[in-house]
Amino acid sequence: MLPSEEDLAAVLAFQLAHITLGHHIDTRYAFSDRLLFPDQATFQHISMGHSSGDDDLAAKKAVEFLNNSIYHDKLPSAGLFFVQLQARAKPLKALMTPLLGDSLLRPDGTPWLVDLTKSAPKLDMDNLSQIAALPLGSRLKINPWDDKVLPLNVKSVPFLNARDKMPFEVTPIYFRLARYTEPEPPAATPDNGTAPAPATGQAAPGAASPPNPQ
Questions:
Q1: Is there a contact between 12 and 19 (Cβ–Cβ < 8 Å)?
Q2: Which domain holds residue 115?
Q3: Cα(88)–Cα(109) distance, integer angstroms
């Protein structure tokens, strides 16, 4: 969903800040949870994210990282991603609520990295040249059978209208369907041990030449 490298850097910086600050997730039940409650209720009993206080400190440290990184002059573009994220938070509530890890949004719907949005340009959904966020599955493909993640090296298609941008939505799949037709049987070839008849005007090898009418 991240349209640019600086957007990816902003998301990663939030998690790198947690590591730098030494924030940890409670793992007391990491190996004994099956004795306490069924697997289906794991996420209802164990919080797999950081506390709000830790997220607040990590957000400040992440902004500090970004301001001192090679992306410091591209942060308005990263801020635009979070503006779009906040605008789509209510209709896509389930998407913004991870079961593992931290949400990019506060409980009130504002981004943790809200400081980046202050320098972001105004969100304009009708502007075809402004790409704040991509649809789901635009860059990566996940194989559900083996959990492998593969990059999609596809060329982006120019937008014809604003509805084509589809931020955070599922990428549509178009199937090319055709009616089934029976395959034609292969043409029969002579296989009786004899050579094919010579073409008109040509004599067979070893045959006598026709008499001269003169």
A1: no
A2: 5-133
A3: 10
